[in-house]
Each structure stands twice: as structure tokens, then as C-alpha cells.
Amino acid sequence: MFIVFDTLNVYYIPQYMPVIQELMHRGHTVKLVCYSNKNDQEALAKTFDEVGVECIWVTDTQEAEQVYLTIKPDWIFFGNQFPHLDSVHQYSKTAQLGHGVGPKPSYYHKSITPMTVRFIEGSLRLVKIKQYYPNDNFIEVGFCKLDPLFKHQDLGLDLTALGLDTSKKTILYAPTFNPSSLECFPDNWPDDFKEYNILIKPHSLTQVRKQYANQRAKLAKWSEYSNVYVANENDISLLPFIQHADILLSEASSTLFEFAAVDRPVIVCNFFKLKWSYRGIFKYRFEKRFGKDNVLYNGIGLHVEKYKSLIKAIPEQLANPQAYQANRLQYTQEHVGPTDGLASERIVDYIEKYDKS
């Protein structure tokens, strides 16, 4: 088969990679279609090269549509909606493979236009999405992005090479770009946690978009501390950081679910900076995007309301990792799905059998 992965944003790649590798292992032909209006082709050249397959660059979805009508792949994988499904369905089958299992309503509503199949992670998410779209085709497979973690593969982050002390516990701070707690952390916060390694993995959009320059200024200051490693724009995968971390700090990110799936403590930062279009009279926009019905992580770990609370909370959670263990297990079953490392195999099994049916 000939399979293409529609890579609207570079941060889709960690979700795609286990499936790409499984397809190539089975002898299928794989290509990426990448968007120059969303990604800096020159700055991210290393990242795209490391995928190990040809990347066809387009400027927008209209150009992508024309590419698909020309090359006629058997399957196209999408990480989000695509506005030209009717035309590409003339020649190709389509699969939706969401790049996260976060709390945003968009997780469900990106399926408003049905593809041939959408692969779903956990059992609760499958039940809920079927309520929204009872006539569409959803298959529960697990969260393929995490397959390498569950298979205990070496994911390539060397703490010693980064100048960190492997005898210390390691904090992973993985803020999203909006709403983000990043700007609520003080410039000198690594001083408060000298006895720990600190890995900081910002969202890929924080690294590249002009409106997040203030966030990058914070990251630059933190990177000067000897106990800190701040991911760069080519560190697109969170998995190497999860592999080496003992505890996670985040706010409204699917990272919470991913880290809970390896059964380690998470702390939810309930303090964050909203952009102006989510504040004041525009607060309804925030509620719409992060609606109460979709704030699914209330019990996933300890919630803190201000930065200073972390000084006490982090050592307490590390000393009592069992505190939210039952909750983490439940969240994993319901939202992440099976943790056997075989999600990508189930996806490839499905599309191979579909072609034969």
C-alpha cells in the first residue's frame, strides 16, 4: 500500500512515528505532506529528515488536495479536520489520528466531517464520541504515540550529556502554549528546586510563533541554570522527557494523560495566563474552548492554585507516589487505552484488513 501522513503541524510527528515505522516494517510505502505555512521548513529540516521518509511540501490545504488527487495514495492519515474530504475520497481512504488526548472540546468536534475511520484511544472516549456521531466509524486501539514508552525503547535523552545529575530526582515541566502557566513561573524558579533536575518541554508553538516571544524569553533565562535543560525546537517528542522524569507539572495539556499512563505523579497548575481574547468580556470564548464538560482531569493528580504551592507539593508528591495511583489507572483505561505498546500494530492491522474486505 501507499500511505501518506498529512502533517499540518510538526508536533503531529510523534503521534505518527510508531505507525510510520510499523508500516515501513511491513513493506508499505510512506510519505509525508508538510505545510510551509505552518512550519519553518529550514529550521525544522533536521526533524523532518529524521522521520526517514520523503516530505512533499505544500502551502495550504488546497494545494494538499491537489497533491492527493495527483498521487492517489491508498490511505491518508490526518491529525485534524480536512476541508476537502469529498474530493480525496474519490481515490483514497482516510484515517484520523488525533495528536493528543487532551481536555479540549475540539478533540471530539474535529470528527464533524467523517473520515473512513477514526482511531480512538480509550474506552470512555469511544463511548462519548459515538454519542456525538453515532453513524461514523470509530475503532479503539490505544494511544500509539506512547508505544515506544510501553515497549521500553531507548528514546535518546542522555541526562549526563546534558550536564544533569542522574542521582537527583527529575521534574518535567511541560506547559502548553495557551492557556499557559509558563509566564506565571518566576525567572529564578530553578533556584527553588536546586536539589532536582528540571526538564522543560514547552509546546512546539511556543518555540516558533511570534506572539509567544515572552514565553521564549522566560525559557532563555531558565536555560542558564545548571540543573535545567530546556528543549529546543527540534525536540518535538515529549517521550524522551517522560522517560527520564519522576513527576510532571502542566496545566491544560494532554501531557497530563500521557504521563499518568506511566503511573508517575502529576501536578496540575491551576494558575495560567490567558491571552486578551479569553479575558473579561471574552471569557465565554475560553469556556467554549475548554468547556466544563471537557475538563476531564480533575482527579488525575494534585491541583495547585499558585506557583509557591509547588515548593511544598513537589516533594510531598514524590514521597507519596501512590496518592493518586488508582485515579491514574482509571484515567489511563478510560482516556489512553491499552498500555501494551501495540496500538500502532492494531492500526496497521486494521487498514491492511480493510483493504482486503
Describe what you observe in this structure.
This protein is α/β, with parallel strands linked by helices. Helix 1 crosses helix 15 (343-356). It contains 15 helices and 13 strands. Strand 5, helix 5 (106-109) and strand 6 form a beta-alpha-beta unit. Helices cover 34% and strands 15% of the residues. This is CDP-glycerol--poly(Glycerophosphate) glycerophosphotransferase. Pfam families: Glyphos_transf (PF04464).
- Which percent range fits the helix content? 25-40%
- CATH class designation of the largest domain: Alpha Beta
The arrangement of helices and strands along the chain is EHEHEHEHEHEHEHEEHHEHEHEHEHHH
> What's the CATH H-level homologous superfamily of the largest domain?
CDP-glycerol glycerophosphotransferase, C-terminal domain
What's the domain count?
Answer: 2
Overall shape: globular
InterPro entries: Glycerophosphate_synth, TagF_C, Teichoic_Acid_Biosynth
Pfam families: Glyphos_transf
Protein name: CDP-glycerol--poly(Glycerophosphate) glycerophosphotransferase
List keywords for this structure.
357 residues, alpha/beta, Rossmann fold, 2 domains, 6-stranded parallel beta sheet, 15 helices, 13 strands, 34% helix, 15% strand, CDP-glycerol--poly(Glycerophosphate) glycerophosphotransferase, Teichoic_Acid_Biosynth
Short overview:
This is CDP-glycerol--poly(Glycerophosphate) glycerophosphotransferase. It comes from Shewanella litoralis. By secondary structure, this protein is an alpha/beta fold.
